[in-house]
Amino acid sequence: MSHAGSMPLVSNTARPLAGRCRVPGDKSISHRALILGALAVGRTRVTGLLEGDDVLRTAQALCALGARVERGEDGVWTVKGVGVGGLSEPDDMLDLGNSGTGARLLMGAVASHPFTSFFTGDASLRRRPMGRVAKPLGEIGARFIARDGGRLPLAVIGAESPLPITYRLPVPSAQVKSAVLLAGLNAPGETVVEEPLATRDHSERLLRHFGASVLVEMLNDGGRRIRLEGQPELLGADLVVPGDPSAAAFLAVAALIVPGSEIVIEGVGLNPLRAGLYTTLREMGADIAYENERVEGGEPVADLVVRASRLKGVAVPAERAPSMIDEYPILAVAAAFAQGQTVMHGLAELRVKESDRLAAIAQGLASCGASVTVAGDTLAVAGKGQPAGGGQIATRLDHRIAMAFLVLGMAAEKPVRIDDGTTIATSFPGFAALLNGLGAAIAEDGP
Ligand code: S3P
Asked: pLDDT-derived band of residue 222, with 50, 70 and 90 as boundaries?
């Protein structure tokens, strides 16, 4: 069902995809670059920032907190930071739109500043749990007044005298880890986060890039301990944001399932803690080659050469989930085009993303004629080579559900319709135009 301001889209059968392309800058790194730039002394210049709604909300919030964030005519973003502990009280609500990362990381940043701020977001973000950050930030000394279930809108009353804490993550979440580390920047002494399963380490890498002392120790159980020395002087720095592997995932799967395709996606970040999807696709038989492997902005990067492939079903272990947590919607689509069953374990966190993604994937695939089951936190898709398509997808304010099902429509027997494509701009502005340039046929779905 569409609503006012929504943009229904239809994805028809694509031509074989061909060409070279680039994807927007990494969303996780973009948020962190702006936030750390704001907490540094002096000027930070960010090249390749994702100019999606989520990141622009973080930029606005940082301006409201006293930093200067500006886009130059050359597309390079400049941040004039206030230094660790230098944020000031915003005079209005901070509205983070659809962005869980923006909301949770900024709650961390303000938790160790002695002022009160108010956070809200769109209907999707207002449903998502914030207790997971409020709990450790409470131990640091901040107080929270939130709606039932720890939900937005909420007020953060920052700590007058923030304490360094040691916190073991109860859920594998880079957002919670990063919120604690950002709060710990303005606490004296050492802030320690332990994670039983390693999550993306962009915060650790960037904190070092800006001059903080961050030590990482491997734990016997395979987890990690991250130790941050508090109250460092962060210094403004230049950085280049690599292409987002989570955005590239949609193009890669499109090229795998549309017969006769061959595309090159340039400059994709392949941090090992983010690249689980590519490992999985290769296990499924995908022809994906890494060319020009290099390091950019402290992250491993490569050009991906992707050719249409016959895929087979595989089992995806729970331990891999944090390294591909945003990629299950598009992996489930790839699985529907494979031969045999793909079983994905350890997906509890998908229930609390921009939508309940387990439910959204299951419902969407079923409406496209694919055979799918959810049991607890396991998703199983029985691939039959080519699903029927023809579905009408409820995207639930979730950009990744929208993009995944548009990709499915490119190679299904019948077109796929989604109720709203506006949310795609949160992470991948220009998605439909870029895919259409490669051979897709995605169009507005008129009345
Ligand atoms: C992110 C971490 C993940 C991911 C999100 C971005 C980050 O969320 O789903 O899109 O930038 O730290 P969780 O920390 O909730 O797993």
From this structure: confident
Q: State how beta strands 151-157 and 143-147 pair.
A: antiparallel
Of 206, 214, 236, 241, nearest to 67 by C-alpha is 236
Short-list 324, 400, 387, CA closest to 360: 400
Per-residue pLDDT reduced to its tens digit, 225-246: 999 999 999 999 999 999 999 9
Tell whether ligand 1 has an atom less than 6 A from the beta carbon of residue 326: yes
Q: 34 CA to middle of ligand 1, Å?
A: 16
Residue with CA at minimum distance from ligand 1 atom 9: 326
Mean confidence (pLDDT) of the chain: 97
- Sequence-distant (6+) residues with CB within 8 A of 153 are 93, 118, 119, 120, 126, 146, 147
- Dist. CA 443–CA 447, nearest whole Å: 12
321 CA distance to ligand 1 centroid (A)?
A: 12
Q: Which atom of ligand 1 is nearest to the CA of 175?
A: 14
**Nearest CA owner, ligand 1 atom 4:** 326
Per-residue CA distances from 418 to 80, 212, 304 (Å):
41, 45, 28
Is the shortest distance between the CB of 174 and ligand 1 below 6 Å?
yes
CA distance linking residue 251 with residue 8, whole number of Å: 20
d(CA 77, CA 169): 33
Report the DSSP pairing between strands 416-418 and 392-393.
parallel
Q: What is the pTM of this model?
A: 0.98
